[in-house]
Amino acid sequence: MKVRVTITRREQIADPQGAAVARGLRDLGYTEVAAVRVDRIVDLEIDGTDPSAVEARVAEMCRRLLANPVMEDFEITMGAPA
């Protein structure tokens, strides 16, 4: 089963990578860029046929390794594109 996890930094947490990208874009003349947030997407291929069980297992993976629970939130999309 294909699963996509989108990991986003919480709004109140600074995003130094996003700030660096925004600065670089403005330096290149893209002055219309007001702000940039850099997030992560993790695509997984999981053995399993029960969507609820797979989603619960992926959520556990996120809490234990994939996302930092102090600074990040995650969203799980089942049947994500490869």
Descriptive report:
- By secondary structure, the protein is α+β, with helices and mostly antiparallel strands.
- Strands 2-1-3 form a 3-stranded antiparallel beta sheet, covered by helices on one side.
Descriptors:
alpha+beta, 2 helices, single chain, 82 residues
Task: List the topology elements.
Layout: E1 2-9, H1 16-27, E2 40-45, H2 51-66, E3 72-78
Antiparallel strand pairs: 1-2, 1-3
Strand order of the largest sheet: 2-1-3
Residue-averaged pLDDT, rounded? 95
Quaternary structure state of the chains depicted: single chain
Q: How many distinct helices?
A: 2
Cα-based radius of gyration, to the nearest Å: 16 Å
Low-confidence stretches: none
Shape: elongated
Order of helices and strands: EHEHE
Proportion of residues in extended strands: 25-35%
> Roughly what percent helix?
25-40%
Structural class: alpha+beta
